[in-house]
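Final report, closing paragraph on structural work. Over the funding period we assembled a curated collection of sequence-structure pairs, and we close with a single example.
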Amino acid sequence: MRLRLLILAVFVLAPAYSYAGDKKKTADPKKAEPKFDARPQLVPFRLTDTHHTLVRVKINGKGPFNFIVDTGCPVMLISEPVGKKLGFDKGWATLESLEMEGGVELNKVKARIETPFQIEGMNGMGLAGVELHGLMGYTVLAKYRMEYDYTKRQMIWTPLKSEPLPPMKLGKGGGGGDFGMDMMVGLVRLMTWLAGIGPAPAPQPRGFFGFEIEQKGKAVKVARVLTGGPADKAGLKKGDRILSVEAKSISGVNDVLQQASKLTAGKTLTLNIERDTKKLELTITAGDGL
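Its predicted structure, as stored:
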């Protein structure tokens, strides 16, 4: 009788020990999900001559490249010449890094290397006023809630925790879409040739200054200076108040951005600033890149 009771006790207690072990396993803090960063980020943009929203990006550390933000495009499309520079053949590719001007950064982005006929046509006719390199579509944009402010030439991108659906093949069975794309590209080439329109002029990327600014009340102040960048070399410091740009008084952040956006690498930007009640004039020579 004692033997039976002992065996019964073992069978009754065994599940309890097993459950306790499982509970301990699932509570392992080492396997906790990483904290999600949902802080909004500013992405500067410009309008092309055709009033498309254009952002500048670096792909795998190379660039900058000009991309149109296209909410109607199902994937990120990269023109074939840019794809070749990045070491990709025509077709699907995974980008190791995608960095937008302003600091938004993504890793392992699925993209399609194929020149969109819209980009082919706009570049062929020189419509946008700048060379375009692709379309930024759903697979990137669906990761953010986006807010536009056309008065300030900047967007607010807030990260979303949900992941977008994976991209689908173009066309039925993957073949029809490619054939259709090739036909459209060929048609656009023919139209531009018949119209006698030459290609767009060589692109001139906007200069890089290496500082960020913010609005505090009516004051425009330097929020950050990139170490070793053009602004740092010119002597600009965090906390400096910008009084004027190119001898023109300013009323907000947008006034500074508009002046800076007109300058290419090698051009200079003159700032009048106030630092600890002292007024100074600084000249920053624009560099290359973002």
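The CA atoms of residues 187 and 287 lie 39 Å apart. The two ends are 83 Å apart (CA to CA). We thank the funder for supporting this effort.
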